From TrEMBL:
UniProt protein name: Ferredoxin-type protein NapF
Sequence positions that bind [4Fe-4S] cluster 3: C138, C141, C144, C148
Sequence positions that bind [4Fe-4S] cluster 2: C66, C69, C72, C76
Family under the similarity heading: Belongs to the NapF family.
Superkingdom, taxonomy of origin: Bacteria
HAMAP family the UniProt entry points to: NapF
Length: 163
């Protein structure tokens, strides 16, 4: 049984540093009701769900990508998830200044990994092609994260973007 005082302490309405699982109802409902049973960690086929702050499950895209298999949703005994017929989440990739192309070094690893072709490379006169992210196409799968040799890609939710 989860201690309610401790749950309240942990649920201080904060935004997690890393994204949670897809199809979660919302962060507050999650922190209030997740018992940290770890069933989603065991169920995840790509093992990207890890123990985060306070032992609550969170996604680590350095371990791999989300395939949207829904097994985390199916494994969870608590009412924490929305219908999987709805959009999974508002997680999007973000490319930062550590990108090799910005230092004029040829690299297209992330584009090669992106199934939905959300990362396209735009040729530059006198320089190497630069990655451009099409946010409307990005589904937040995170497949581009681990492939980047300079860790230039992070995955952020709209809430994190607003911080
Ligand atoms: S949908 Fe599948 S791959 Fe994605 S976090 Fe859940 S169990 Fe893991
Ligand atoms: S994989 Fe990383 S370094 Fe290479 S183009 Fe993409 S963001 Fe830049
Ligand atoms: S998170 Fe997935 S869909 Fe988005 S840019 Fe990266 S590989 Fe493409």
């Amino acid at each position: 049984m989860f201690d309610r005082g401790r749950r309240n302490l942990l649920s201080r309405r904060r935004t997690p540093a890393l994204p949670r699982m897809p199809w979660l109802v919302d962060e507050d409902t999650f922190v209030d009701n997740c018992t940290r049973c770890n069933k989603c960690l065991s169920a995840c086929e790509t093992k990207i769900i890890v123990k985060g702050d306070g032992g609550f499950p969170t996604i680590d895209f350095n371990q791999g990508e989300c395939t949207f298999c829904t097994q985390c949703v199916d494994a969870c005994p608590e009412p924490l998830f929305r219908s999987t017929t709805e959009a999974a989440w508002d997680v999007k990739a973000r490319i930062n200044q550590q990108c090799l192309a910005q230092s004029n070094v040829e690299c297209r690893s992330c584009g090669d990994m992106c199934e939905v072709q959300a990362i396209r490379f735009k040729l530059q006169a006198g320089g190497v092609a630069q990655p451009e992210l099409e946010l409307d196409l990005c589904n937040g799968c995170g497949a581009c994260v681990a492939t980047c040799p300079t860790s230039a890609i992070t995955m952020v939710t709209r809430k994190l973007e607003e911080k």
